[in-house]
Write a structure and sequence with these properties.
This protein has helices at about 85-115, 115-130, 135-145, 145-150, 160-170, 190-200, 230-250, and strands spanning about 15-20, 25-30, 35-40, 60-70, 75-80, 175-185, 210-215, 220-225, 255-260. It is α+β, with helices and mostly antiparallel strands. The chain has three domains: about 15-85, Nucleic acid-binding proteins (OB fold (Dihydrolipoamide Acetyltransferase, E2P)), CATH 2.40.50.140; about 85-170, Orthogonal Bundle (DNA polymerase, domain 1), CATH 1.10.150; about 175-260, Alpha-Beta Plaits, CATH 3.30.70.1130. The strands form two sheets. A five-stranded mixed barrel has the order 1-2-3-5-4. Strands 7-8-6-9 form a four-stranded antiparallel beta sheet, with helices on one face. Strand 7 (about 210-215) and strand 8 form a beta hairpin. The longest helix is centred in the middle third of the chain and has 28 residues, at about 85-115. It is globular, with a radius of gyration of 20 Å. The chain starts with 12 loop residues before the first strand and ends in a 12-residue tail after the last strand.
Amino acid sequence: MVKRQEYPEEGELVVGTVTDAKGYGAFVKLEEYPGKVGFIHIAELATGWVKYVRDHVREKQKVVCKVIGVDRSKGHVDLSLKRVNEHSRREKIAEWKNEQKAEKLFEILARDLGKEQEACFLEFGDKLIEKYSSLYSAFEMAAIDPDQVQQDFKGDWLAKFLELAKANVSIPYVTIKGELEVTSNRPSGAEDVSQALLAAEQGEFEDVTITVQYLGAPRYLLRVKAPDYKIAEEELKKAVQRAVKAIQQSGGKGDFHRETDKSKAPKPAA
């Protein structure tokens, strides 16, 4: 999965391959950012004291890291391995594999249309990503609800796109997400925010999972997993309403932005 934005954002989870494990840390090739290398300081490899770097990572090992700092002027990307829990690691790997699959399908689509892949991105690929948050999510949507995609898009490419999605993407669940901002200036502000986030997660259906992930105050990633997009959209809306209502009752403020990929290339779907 290759992203077209030059650098990852702070707080983002990235997939990388360890290229060099030294005494003071490890260098990691960022798979989603061609030509970019991140660094895991020895203090960010694991909780507690780390004596040997190679006890935790080795060359050619695939790792999922959290971006904790980006200095574009120097080309530095600081990473943390210890700040990624097992659930997040598995989810990120799954997203990464899905996006690799989506890229391959898009490559096939461009070939079948007799066009360059870059031209297809410019014509409709970027718009699909903007609409559905990632390329794989676009293929998912086409497999689940092709009528909706046909309402959203027109073009001679659409029939082949829907055909590829139907043949290659099976959807037990879908995931949508967005960025929730909650703030409170009261002395009890931290507790106010915590209660608002808990309210967001209190869904009413067993087959719907709502989670909140810390991005960096006051920003939180709100993710909803549901059997289909319509249910997911409804539950996302309700979750936002619960969080905003809770923080406003405490005198704070809440806002929500549906996540879209600012880059032009595939981004993982959660």
